[in-house]
Design brief:
Elements: E1 24-33, E2 40-50, E3 55-59, H1 66-73, E4 81-86, E5 89-90, H2 96-105, E6 107-111, H3 122-132, H4 137-150, H5 166-177, E7 184-188, H6 196-212, E8 216-220, H7 224-227, E9 232-237, E10 240-246
Parallel strand pairs: 3-8, 3-9, 6-7, 7-8
Antiparallel strand pairs: 1-2, 1-4, 4-5, 9-10
Bound molecules: adenosine-5'-triphosphate (ATP) and magnesium ion.
């Protein structure tokens, strides 16, 4: 008789095995800027988990620590204290090369300002992460076409960012973030530069790709209208976390 394995909660990546446990686990995370009387405590010992397959919204007033937290999760910054696990990998202990591979292969970033390369077409922008990974060109072209149609831009592949609307540019950025089939999407106010309707459409697209692509997403947003699309809302208040638990409108 086969015993069921109880890897639950382990969350440690072993070569050749898919990591189990939550997609993100944060334990007692501290990050301060500056020192002495002028020190800013951006994160004051926060702990939480992001379950796999969920869309988690991160809210909080300006300066509450959202960007600081997302940068730490993405390995763009190092904490003063505390542990971070992303997709079974201990991010804090990683060296430069491993961090680079984590960011390239397992995390997709979406920024408020889109971050597209102006001289490249929409399709070329989406293909950049796959080029960095030296993916087979044919495979890359197929996936780029699929992703552009997924985000509703199949007819705009050749246009450069400057020839696209803000909402369309953010759709390209979402497609690019998905290029290498990341486990985790990290988005820092992805609708911050968009009008309300366009912002809602972009958030609905993120909601849809979390379902269709099986990714997990952590999205910082100021916009209360977008919080209703999340499975869960985390709130930062002056560097401390308030967990709102599962949302009543969860679908
Ligand atoms: N590089 C830095 N040097 C010094 N202080 C910083 C730095 N980055 C952030 N801070 C401070 O840390 C605190 C948290 O900033 P953070 O950018 O994480 O907030 P946020 O929640 O993302 O705000 P917003 O909603 O305006 O984007 C703020 O008080 C900010 O001034
Ligand atoms: Mg911010």
């Amino acid at each position: 008789m086969t015993q069921s394995t109880s890897a639950q909660g382990g969350g440690t990546a072993v070569a050749g095995e898919r990591p189990t446990g939550p997609m993100v686990r944060v334990d007692n995370l501290h990050r301060s800027y500056g020192s002495g009387a002028a020190a800013v405590h951006a994160l004051r010992g926060i702990s939480f988990e992001v379950p796999r397959g969920e869309l988690v919204a991160l809210k909080g007033r300006s300066g509450s620590g959202k960007t600081t937290l997302l940068n730490l999760l993405g390995g763009l910054d190092q904490p003063d204290e505390g542990a971070i696990t992303v997709d079974g990998t201990d991010v804090v202990g990683l060296g430069e090369q491993d961090l680079l591979e984590l960011r390239r292969d397992r995390i997709g970033f979406i920024f408020q300002s889109f971050g597209l390369i102006p001289i490249l077409s929409a399709a070329e922008n989406v293909g950049v992460p796959m080029r960095l990974k030296k993916a087979d060109p044919r495979e890359r072209e197929e996936r780029v076409a699929l992703l552009l149609s997924l985000v509703g831009l199949g007819d705009h592949a050749k246009q450069r960012p400057g020839e696209l609307s803000g909402g369309q540019q953010q759709r390209v950025a979402i497609a690019r973030a998905l290029a290498n089939r990341p486990a985790l999407l990290i988005a820092d106010e992805p609708t911050g530069q968009l009008d309300a309707d366009t912002g809602l459409a972009v958030m609905e697209l993120i909601r849809a790709v979390v379902r269709s692509e099986g990714v997990t997403a952590l999205v910082a947003t100021h916009d209360s209208q977008l919080l209703g699309l999340a499975d869960r809302v985390l709130e930062l208040n002056d560097g401390e976390l308030v967990d709102h638990g599962p949302q009543p409108n969860r679908r």
